[in-house]
């Protein structure tokens, strides 16, 4: 019987740089106090405008800084309590809180009103005062870089972790003073460039937060670990990325209209981003129970494959598996995704940032591992970066060293989770730089059975092309590009609605003159109508509107339209079928070695 592999992460601060862990560490508290978002109140700013506080306003901003200061105090040995910001209507975040409170030695210290908690933490010396900023009233979409945006909230967030102050908007200052707090800094006229120039020597040089100045979420971890907080692609962003130790961990998200530019910018400097701008409670969720090691996902046994069956085979794979915030809230119980009644009804691959979850989403990881349907594969997405751009602005030797270092991290978590697959997005899937990165991964990740590559735009640009890269033992490892994409309102040749993709698979598999093995990426945010008519356009809709569905169900509609001759398999099985079809002697040898072990 195959031994179970467990992950026990080293919690020694001195071992941080040498270990496989890339997230900052959080010490264990003795108590957990909860603040409900429903208890947050609107704030009237001096300009006469009122800002709601439920999830998005000044009180939420203030509580984020309060939670960060509490976590920092636990890390520094100055406190024993952490703050959990609870979304009353979010099943996931409610469950994670319940599970954390089951940890041995953690006391449930109840629910507190935001300003009552400020008063208590001021009395304990955890809150030393306040930092004053101006609320950002700039017009435009949230999570885009807006003209005339007020950066002072990001400046205040950066200083909160350094000065020990909560962040308050102008409309909250009177209340802060009423609780006896003094102003530690007035940053209403200060910029992100100013705070970086002035305080860079005191900032965390391993991590940085990218966050819209109008969005409260995820600031707690920046405060807890004394990170720089900024937004936009313009300066000081490049300066900060050049200064940050490599590979650095970038939290949050940048201008939503410029995803490719943003990810390329940080990749070129040797960094990796974890999409998390809407995340909550990262300090609490990164608590690691060393008394209960994390267990692997289902292991796929390639010896169960009937390799004498040469039927065309296709796999379906869910996109956005690098999205940590999605895994924390809105994934596990969502009826479109992991919580779908059809999850497991057909073979399905899930992209997942389980390396990050093992470090920061410990309870979400455990829940997903415990509830994984037998008919599914879990494929690692180890952060969001472009392999072909990683370290491109650095000397060649440093780029290769970064690829090798990240390979070692990937190896650690593949072994821990019990899988051999990982996937990534390349800016140009077949560029020389991309092929160089794939070769580095194959050579330096012993557990690797295959890689799944997604082109940045369109996802299916590779048209199923396979590259072969040798591992350290001379065995060829396939790098398989996406051939199809389930994506609403697309006019690309190999992407579109469930009925269109099913037609393409049926036609092209029937006409194939060589083994037909391909995979389809399911765009997680595409909305489709359930329509069993043959029209290929009528299924497309807008995500979450007028009864559309996304994720698991639309892929199921596609699967049900496939010819009986087409076998639907998990990504694990697809990779092994490809290996047997194109490298039969090597694959037989590898599988015999597996049997012997």
TrEMBL record:
Q: Gene3D superfamilies under this entry? A: GxGYxYP glycoside hydrolase, C-terminal domain
User: Which positions make up the signal peptide?
Assistant: 1-17
> Which InterPro entries does this entry report, sorted A to Z?
GxGYxYP_C, GxGYxYP_C_sf, GxGYxYP_N_2nd, GxGYxYP_N_3rd
Q: Which domain of life is it from?
A: Bacteria
The question of whether Signal is a record keyword is answered with yes
Residue span, GxGYxYP putative glycoside hydrolase second N-terminal domain? 128-202
Domain (GxGYxYP putative glycoside hydrolase third N-terminal) spans 237-286
Descriptive protein name: Uncharacterized protein
Q: Which organism is it from?
A: Tichowtungia aerotolerans
């Amino acid at each position: 019987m195959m031994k179970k592999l467990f992950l026990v992460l080293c919690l020694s601060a001195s071992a941080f740089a040498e270990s496989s862990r890339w997230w900052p560490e959080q010490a264990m508290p003795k108590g957990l106090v909860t603040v409900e978002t429903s208890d947050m109140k609107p704030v009237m700013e001096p300009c006469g405008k009122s800002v709601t506080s439920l999830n998005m306003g000044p009180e939420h901003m203030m509580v984020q800084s309060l939670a960060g200061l509490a976590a920092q105090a636990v890390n520094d040995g100055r406190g024993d309590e952490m703050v959990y910001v609870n979304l009353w209507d979010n099943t996931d975040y409610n469950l994670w809180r319940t599970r954390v409170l089951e940890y041995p030695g953690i006391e449930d210290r109840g629910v507190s009103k935001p300003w009552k908690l400020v008063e208590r933490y001021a009395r304990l010396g955890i809150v030393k005062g306040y930092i004053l900023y101006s609320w950002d009233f700039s017009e435009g979409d949230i999570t885009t870089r807006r003209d005339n945006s007020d950066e002072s909230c990001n400046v205040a967030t950066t200083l909160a972790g350094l000065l020990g102050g909560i962040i308050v908007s102008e409309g909250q200052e009177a209340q802060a003073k009423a609780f006896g707090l003094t102003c530690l800094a007035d940053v209403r006229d200060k910029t992100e460039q100013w705070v970086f120039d002035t305080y860079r020597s005191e900032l965390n040089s391993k991590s940085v937060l990218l966050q819209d100045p109008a969005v409260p979420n995820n600031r707690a971890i920046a405060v807890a670990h004394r990170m720089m907080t900024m937004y936009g692609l313009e300066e000081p962003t490049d300066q900060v990325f050049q200064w940050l130790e490599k590979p650095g961990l970038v939290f949050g998200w940048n201008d939503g209209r410029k995803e490719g530019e943003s990810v390329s910018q940080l990749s070129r400097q040797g960094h990796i981003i974890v999409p998390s701008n809407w995340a909550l409670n990262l300090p609490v969720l990164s608590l690691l129970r060393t008394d209960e090691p994390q267990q692997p996902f289902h292991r796929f046994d390639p010896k169960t494959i009937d390799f004498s069956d040469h039927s065309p085979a296709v796999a379906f794979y869910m996109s956005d598996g690098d999205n940590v915030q999605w895994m924390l809230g809105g994934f596990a119980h969502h009826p479109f995704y992991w919580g779908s009644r059809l999850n497991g009804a057909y073979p399905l691959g899930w992209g997942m940032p389980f390396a990050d979850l093992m470090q920061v989403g410990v309870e979400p990881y455990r829940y997903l591992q415990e509830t994984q349907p037998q008919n599914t594969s879990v494929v690692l997405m180890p952060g969001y970066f472009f392999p072909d751009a990683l370290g491109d602005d650095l000397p060649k030797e440093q780029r290769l060293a970064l690829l090798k270092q990240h390979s070692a991290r990937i190896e650690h978590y593949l072994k821990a989770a019990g899988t051999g697959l990982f996937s990534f997005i390349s800016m140009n899937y077949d560029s020389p730089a991309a092929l160089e990165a794939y070769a580095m991964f194959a050579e330096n990740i012993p557990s690797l059975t295959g890689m799944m590559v997604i082109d940045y735009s369109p996802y299916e640009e590779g048209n199923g092309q396979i590259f072969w890269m040798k591992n350290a033992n001379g065995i060829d490892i396939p790098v398989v590009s996406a051939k199809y994409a389930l994506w609403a309102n697309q006019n690309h040749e190999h992407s579109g609605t469930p009925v269109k993709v099913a037609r393409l698979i049926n036609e092209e598999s029937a006409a194939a003159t060589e083994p037909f093995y391909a995979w389809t990426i399911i765009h997680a945010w595409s909305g489709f109508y359930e329509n069993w008519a043959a029209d290929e356009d009528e299924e497309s809709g807008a995500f979450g509107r007028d009864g559309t569905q996304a994720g698991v169900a639309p892929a199921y509609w596609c699967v049900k339209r496939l010819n009986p001759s087409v076998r639907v398999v998990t990504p694990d099985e697809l990779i092994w079928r490809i290996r047997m079809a194109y490298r039969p002697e090597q694959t037989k040898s590898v599988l015999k070695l597996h049997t012997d072990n």
